[in-house]
Specification:
Layout lengths: L25 H9 L1 H25 L4 H27 L11 H7 L6 H29 L3 H28 L5 H18 L8
């Protein structure tokens, strides 16, 4: 089967004008380091859910080849991350846990407008914000965890999350170019900052 000739979505992507996410407080890092098993359990769950989200996007938009191609690759990458988190978790004597509802994701999803004209835009931009927050927080973990194996892993995950949020912004700009993409992204970033400020600090990614 011939591969689709689709240019890289993130090539020369300029995100300098997008509203930044507020910095995570140091108390979150302390909380995570004090209960790293709970953090890794939550991280595994987040990677599995991210893969499922990418597959869901494919199911909803099978007529969008750029989106399908990107989400197929993303789903596989996120599932590989899940596999690696589970390997690390169990190799260090930790116990996997059942998935729990993520209040951060729940609140962000409520910001997605149901109008079909803007639904895809909001889903892509919420995806971008989730990955952007993930990149920031995984970077903090990589900078503070003492285990060399975990440090190397979280450094790699940080880079992946950065690529992912750029991917979502690039897709939004390409597929929703008739809409105010950057303006909506900035609006959602401000709303995300407010959500994070109100959520309790816990040993979880969000």
């Amino acid at each position: 089967m011939a591969e689709l000739d689709i240019p890289p979505i993130t090539a020369d992507l300029d995100v300098s004008m997008l509203t930044p996410l507020a910095a995570t407080p140091s108390a979150w890092v302390t909380c995570v380091l004090n209960n790293f098993e709970a953090f890794m359990q939550d991280h595994a769950s987040a990677e599995k859910k991210a893969s499922g989200m990418a597959l869901s996007m494919i199911s909803h938009y099978p007529d969008q080849p750029e989106l399908v191609s990107a989400m197929v690759d993303l789903a596989v990458e996120e599932l590989n991350h899940y596999k690696e988190v589970m390997r690390l978790l169990m190799s260090k004597g930790m116990t996997p846990a059942a998935d729990l509802k993520d209040p951060y994701i729940t609140q962000l999803n409520k910001l997605v407008r149901k109008d079909s004209a803007v639904f895809l835009l909001d889903r892509l931009l919420i995806g971008a914000i989730v990955e952007r927050r993930g990149a920031e927080r995984f970077g903090l973990v990589a900078a503070h965890v003492k285990d060399p194996e975990l440090q190397k892993f979280y450094q790699a995950i940080t880079k992946s999350e950065a690529r992912h949020w750029h991917l979502f912004v690039g897709l939004a700009r390409q597929l929703c170019s008739h809409l105010p993409v950057d303006e909506r992204c900035c609006e959602l970033a401000k709303l995300e900052n407010a959500i994070v400020a109100e959520l309790p600090i816990r040993p979880a990614l969000h």
